[in-house]
Amino acid sequence: MPRVLISDSLSARAVEIFKGRGVETDVITGMKPEELIACIGEYDGLAVRSATKVTADVLEAAENLKVIGRAGIGVDNIDVDGASGRGIVVMNAPFGNSITTAEHAIAMMFALARQIPLANQSTQSGQWEKSRFMGVELTGKTLGIVGCGNIGSIVAERTLGLKMKVIASDPYLTPEHATEIGVEKVELDELFSRAEIITLHTPSTDSTRGILNAENFAKMRDGVMVVNCARGELVVEADMKTAIESGKVAGFAVDVFPHEPPNKYSLFGMEQVIATPHLGAATTEAQEKVALQIAEQMSDYLNAGAVVNALNMPSVTAEDAPRLKPYMTLGGQIGGLAGQVIESGISTVTIEYEGHAAEINTRPVTACLLEGLLSPLLSGVNMINAPILARDRSIDVSEVRHERDGEYQTLIRLTVETENRSRTVAGTLFGGDKPRIVEINGIKLEAELGENMLYVVNKDRPGFIGRLGTTLGDAGVNIATFQLGRVSPGSDALALIQIDGQLTDHVLDQLCSLPDVVQAKALSF
User: Fold this and answer.
1) Using one digit for the tens of pLDDT, what is the confidence trace for 419-451?
2) For burial by CB atoms within 10 Å, which of 170, 398, 442, 455 has the most?
3) C-alpha 102: how far from chain center
4) Which residues are CB-neighbours of 269 under 8 A, at least 6 positions away?
């Protein structure tokens, strides 16, 4: 039975989901880092919110960990690269708190526009300062949304209902989607120059970190209002303080901070600043949604291999998993065969999908194929880190889908360019789910791969098969299956032989020394 640790406060219903799906669950919150390190090795899954820090030290101790689930969007508290390197899937729940976060951003806009926090404080202190708190209407104002993904799109929809003019800057926002949601797509500089209110809804990346800085404040209108319910690192604190003091920024509403809780924050105490303690996702409905979502996702992965909302692995839904499993097995075998016979560095990998294979979700299949290809050459390879390892080694990987009808109803072909030559391996599924290798380097054959295989390339001359069989027989090696193919009479031939047990180095040396042998390799699957 899989075992999951919940180390942050989650809805009790999440525990019910885990247990209802056969996942043993322990809830231990408020642990110190050393306490988490001491116990994490016992678990297959770890469910967290933002309090638990999944560091390199935690991952080092997580010997059995297969999946980390973040009940929310941000994974700043998780070493995603470190998890990927260890073959641990990192999931989040990106949609459960989208509405809540969008609503909080809009609430912050209203609070800025009508100076509600200060007015509340003044009134409750016994004062009646109507003239001091003269506000502005949101209707007709130009709102600039930086980052128009899921949350940004909801903000756009709601503010268009308030009769605001909405412009958005997002490199991934297509013109078609911009038209669909009713926003005008603009470049970032234009957004800064036109917007009367700016709201941030972009992740913290190398290109967005510090995006609100002195240079960009200078491009903005005087008296602009800014809302940040995304990431604290997006705003350069000192530059924001200067912009507020100069009047460039009339008001700043902030829900997120570079370090939480913020022990020192120079903007605290300024009348133009409204601050909340990271409440963007803090509604009963949102917390319930993300907790249930992450429990379902982690359970489906541990029980069925389904991958949804993973940050470091292609998605495989619970519905797709049974259909994709034989393709993933075939991809692993194709890659594994090629990887074990290649003897020089890889420069280019091309994976072609034909027939039914061209209609499936190919990304997890490609990941399995790359895992098989790279495993004989590198240690610690899995389908999660294989694409990363290929990229880090400057291996050019491409996928091609063919709609044409071929010799087989479904076919996957791998072409690997190495320093010395090009190699190909192709495979299909017999009966819908039985992997078969049907071509190697242009040579046709139909072979089922077993645990132990012998791969032999030889010159096609009379008597060779007899010498090969005799050598194996004299060594006490039993042949289970024997598949042959050749290009043409007298040219290169190939034998793919399933054997009972592993070959010793001595027997392999004998095979390599046989006349007409070009290459002999012991393979394992």
Assistant:
1) 888 999 999 999 888 999 999 999 999 999 999
2) 170
3) 24
4) none
Contact 38, 291 (CB under 8 A): no
> Could you tell me the domains of the chain?
3-95+285-304 (3.40.50.720), 98-275 (3.40.50.720), 320-441 (3.30.1330.90), 449-525 (3.30.70.260)
**What H or E segment, with its residue span, contains residue 420?**
none
Residue 211: CB partners within 8 Å, gap ≥ 6? Answer: 146, 188, 200, 202, 234, 235
CA quadruple 517, 521, 522, 525: dihedral positive or negative?
negative
Q: 371 near 351, Cβ under 8 Å?
A: no
Looking at the DSSP bridge assignments, the partners of residue 352 are 400, 413
What is the value of pTM for the model shown?
A: 0.60
Query: Tokens for 369?
Result: 């194929």
Tell me which residues of the chain have a pLDDT lower than 70: none
Query: C-alpha distances in angstroms, 175 versus 159, 189, 203, 453?
Result: 19, 18, 21, 53
* Residues in CB range of 131: below 8 A, 6 or more apart: none
- In whole angstroms, how far apart are CA 64 and each of 2, 3, 7, 71, 235? 10, 10, 16, 21, 39
Q: What share of the chain is helix, strand, coil (3-state, %, to 5)?
A: 35, 25, 40
Given a contact cutoff of 8 angstroms between Cβ atoms, the answer to whether 443 and 365 are in contact is no
